[in-house]
Queue: 2 jobs
Job 1
Amino acid sequence: MTRTLREMGIAAVAVYSDADRTSLHVRMADEAAYVGPSASAESYLRIDRILDAARKHGAEAIHPGYGFLSENADFAAACEDAGLVFIGPSAAAIRAMGSKTAARQVAIAGGAPVVPGTDHGVTAGEAGEFARTHGYPILLKAVAGGGGKGMRRVDSPSELESAFRNAASEAERSFRNAEIYVEKLIARPRHIEIQLLGDQHGNMVHLGERECSIQRRHQKVMEECPSPLVALHPEMRHAMGEAAIRAARAAGYYNAGTVEFLVDQDRRFYFLEMNTRLQVEHPVTELVTGLDLVKLQVEIAAGARLPFTQEEVTWRGSAIECRIYAEDPYNDFLPFPGKLTRLTRPLGPGIRLDACVYDGWTVPMEYDPLLAKLAVWAATREDATGRMIRALREYDVGGIRTNLGFFRQILEDAEFRAARLHTGFIEEFFERHRVPKPPEDLAAVAALAAALHTMSRTAQSEAPAASGVSPWLKSGRAGLLR
């Protein structure tokens, strides 16, 4: 965000809490404003403090980012009332689409197919009645939710009461809204979303799809553009794009937004929800389309028209993003805050790293432990996968545990390579493999590489030379750079 604003000649003012006092976004900004203690309820969720900071620093517009108040209609309205431009949709559109149940009603009005479910918050008893009618399993979901918060799968009546209580409690902590609604669970769905962009003059386009099926605890951790499924069935892009635009138009939507769909095993798609903000995974769309979504957001908020039509949107190559977390994938993805004792970033063509860390920085305990978004681009999905594996091997973080090695194991998995993806992929991955922890120490990595190289040389000396592709390229075992 700050980089884009700087390229546009606009000064950036960062807000920060006690926990983020030394964060990279504060260092990079032209100015910074303190908004309160580490607890988000006393800082990043305080509308009054955010607006006060904007006034003190002479800001004319506010970009809400990814989380906290980014989908809060009251915040958007407060910005408008204070004479500040909210870089996002209108408060009315956020109210219409930010509530998951209200969004279902809007989607139905717009003619988009929806997953069977309720269009209002329910009690535990009403959720049980829905399950008796539609059958288990069901999903309990926060009305004001997102990012997997306030969501629980229920497979039987005996699980319902505790799951409902836990979902409501988490929803209250995360969104200050404990309301829960219920949906029928679709078996082994793919999660595919459509990026939308609309101006305030009635023009709207879609920028294609992202495959977001690799998830843990209902939260995305890896995304691709294009979806390998849609790439095989390009008519799906048109159909899903049109359905997304109809739903957004029904809400009077403008600026950037994402309509999320579940796709069943027969390639039928169902409206899931709309995120009324810029998504964490937007870099893969930018890499494939060549567009800067943040710049377009700012221009649209300033009243500009979209500078292109739907027919002028093009897609080139394949991009993959991995969300790098301070967590232990081999211990139920437990967060792992702490101080970074070393940091080596991946470099080279086709690599993009949106990071918030630096050597010596301490990952705070108070917030989501996302360290960086590592994205790569290549001409094909196969090449992008290879490039991501290489980048993950170069990326070294010391002092804490991360999911870097786990992503390498996912990318090397045969099911991932064959694009047989669904939202339960990670759970099944652990069931299919007794997954060892990858070596974290660089010396151990070097020793492993040397051992593989020795194996490769031995195998090549014992095997006859093949015509065409060299044996070392076919084996994929090891290569040596001199």
Note: The CA atoms of residues 21 and 34 lie 8 Å apart.
Job 2
Amino acid sequence: MTKKQNIGTICIQGGWQPKKGESRVLPIFQSTTFKYETSEQMARLFDLEDSGYFYSRLQNPTVDAVGAKIAALEGGVGAVMTSSGQAANFYAILNICQSGDHFVSATTIYGGTYNLFAVTLKKMGIEVTFVDADAPAEEIEKAFRPNTKALFGETISNPGANVLDIEKFANIAHKNGVPLIIDNTFATPINCRPIEWGADIVTHSTTKYMDGHAVAVGGAIIDSGNFDWEAQHDKFTCLTEPDESYHGLIYTKNFGNAAYITKLVSQVMRDLGAMMSPQNAFLLNLGLETLHLRMPRHCSNAQKVAEFLKAHPKVKWVNYSGLKDDKYYELAQKYTPEGGCGVMAFAVEGNKEDAIRFMDSLKFIAIVTHVADARSCVLHPASHTHRQLSDAQLQEAGINPDLIRLSVGIEDVEDIIADIEQALQVL
């Protein structure tokens, strides 16, 4: 029996297994189409009777190799790569929800995802109920309806840095016969693998730590293969009953525990087409090769920065689960004992204008609409990423007007702290 590889080896060796004479480095298959010798060969691909490549909107060898690596890192049976993290969360829901359906989500999620769920999906006839992730299970269960199809949350929330009790959410979801979908962008599979705690579907904005260098936008959806769709036959007829667009094929019957991920590629990606480009997949793979090296540095730097901020007289509060008095410290010790991520939330003394003055005074820590890459950066969510939310929605999402999101990079931590310290002096 072959020993299961450790996660650092998968980061480097996973996905692409070159044969004799093939490129050692994952090549870029920059082609829209792929040749076959007979019409019958192509027909079998279109009927999902054979696996292979015929058009890069559905599958591409470069993209699939990266997907296989990420699936291995998360412990899933397969992955679909998308053009962005936003597309990943959209497709993860849309693959099992249609007009008239409902799902439940934690309130404390990324502002773009909140808007996707609350506004755009609502226009499509899919409703969401937001719940306090920290509430007791029986309180969260009150949000479920007969037409509820999923429960959604983020391992570490963006931007508040809240830690989700994944096991609690998994128990709630499974008790109510639906899958748990977890966005694991901030923790990455280096620090947390939600499938091991009961998650059924995992999503990522690969734009963040996985890429790690702010060069390639992308997303991923990983299927654990663990959810029993047939046990909820009548709830998930999109998987358990014939798909007329494939001559009556039944995903659970034809593809077993890969039913969800197969439908995602062959139906949702086929029709909506937000696929990852081969070039972006190649760049993402380079980032993945050092993910296991970068994440410990992000976390150790962030821990030191959080401790500095916590002790500073011009800082009101700090949310970072590595701090022993943090609300989420115990959950972090359970789910991310090696460290969570490099992102934290804090507030300086004063008001919103003081927060902006602090950020404008930073020298190399840049104000950017990004997070979680090698370079330290800062953002004011109420003014930037979450500005589309109402005041009431901001409060529900845990976004105070003075909240500053700091993404600690992998520069020398003494320089990071020095930049923060000089900016605090202007207050």
Note: The chain has a mean pLDDT of 94.
